[in-house]
Amino acid sequence: MITYCACVCICYNWFKMAGRPQAPRIISNAIIPRNRLTVYSCTPREIYSAMTDQMKWLQWLADHRLIRNNNDCGNCQAPMALVRRNEAPEGFSWKCRPCNTRCSVRAGSFFANCVLSSETVVMLMYYWIHAVKSTHVMLFENIVDWHVIVDYNNFFRLQCEQWINRQQVDLGGFDGNGQPIVVEVDESYFFRRKFHRGRRRKGNWVVGLVERGTGKCWLEIVRRRDAATLEQIILAHVLPGSVVVTDAWRGYANVGTLNNGVYVHEVVVHAMNFVDPHRPDVHTQNIEGLWMQVKRKIRYQSGTSRDLFPSYLSEFQWRYSHKAYVYGQYLCLLSENYGI
Ligand SMILES: [Zn+2]
User: Fold this and answer.
1) Ligand 1 centre and the CA of 328: distance in Å?
2) Number of CB atoms found within 10 A of residue 319's CB
3) pTM above 0.90?
4) Is 194 helix (H, G, I), strand (E, B) or coil?
5) Distance from the CA of 74 to the center of ligand 1, in angstroms?
6) In this structure, are residues 338 and 106 in contact, taking their beta carbons and an 8 Å threshold?
7) How does pLDDT run across 263-299, given as a tens digit for each residue?
8) Distance 102 CA to ligand 1 centre (A)
C-alpha cells in the first residue's frame, strides 16, 4: 500500500487544479512541538519501522526536528521544492526552481557533516543516550571500526557542551512558600589517568553548585579555587536570598557579605558526611553525592583526554538535570542547537 502525507496530497490536489506539477515545499505537516518532544520516548523498533520507505524516513527526521522541514534558497530567498534525487543519501533534495540551486535535506542539521547514513546516526544517538555498550551498538548497527562509535559519541557529547554553554543557569532564590532555597557549593579536583592505570597526571579543579531538592546544578572548570573565582561563580549562578552551604575552605569566607549580604551563608565545619543534630540542614551531601557520581562516570569512560574533559562534564550536568524522557530531551537539545 502506498501512503502519502497530507501535505503531499494537498500539493497534489493543488497542482491538479493548477494544471502543472508542483513539488512540495515542506516535508511534513506533523512536526512535533518542542514541549511535546521533551516528554517523547520510543523504542528502537518504532524508529526502525520508519526506515522502510525513504519519504517516511524523511518525514520522521523532520517530525522529530532533526532536519529542516522547509528551506529557502540562499540566492533568491524563495522557498525551495522537495524533489527526488537518487544520488542523495535520503533520496530527496531541495531545489530552487527559479535559479536551479540544489541543497541537501541535511543542510544546517546535525547530519550536515556526517558520513554515515542518517538511519545509522539516529540509532547510534539512541543507543548513546541510553548508555548501551559500544560493543552491542557495533553488533546492532553492523559497525566494525570501534573508532566510529568513539567519534560519534564525542560528537553527541559536544552537543551537550554547546547547549550548556548557552544556558544561564540560576540556582536558589525562594520556593513557592517564600522560603529560601538551599544551594550547596563545593570544589573538587579531577585527576586525569590514562587508560585506568598509570601515574596520575595534572588535572582540573571543578566548582560545583547544586540546588537542594531539584538537582539543578552548575559545574565549572576553574584555574584556581581562590575567593575571587568562587565568589564570581556564586554571584553569576545563585539568586539573591538563597542559603549557600559550603565547607570551611577560606575561599568561601566572604560569601555572607557579598553584595551587602544577599546570601545566608552556612558553613559545614565538621568532617565529611557528618550532620550536626542541632543544624540538620547544614550539610553538603548533595554536592558530595554528585562528585561521587561524576567521578565514577568519567573514570568509567576513561582515557578521557584533556580536550574532551569539558564535554564529559557538560554531558554529566545535562543528564543530571534531564533524567526523564532522556531521548526526547536530547532531540529537543539538538533542535535548539541547530535552530530547527
Ligand atoms: Zn534560488
Assistant:
1) 34
2) 18
3) no
4) strand
5) 6
6) no
7) 999 998 766 556 677 788 888 889 999 999 998 888 7
8) 9
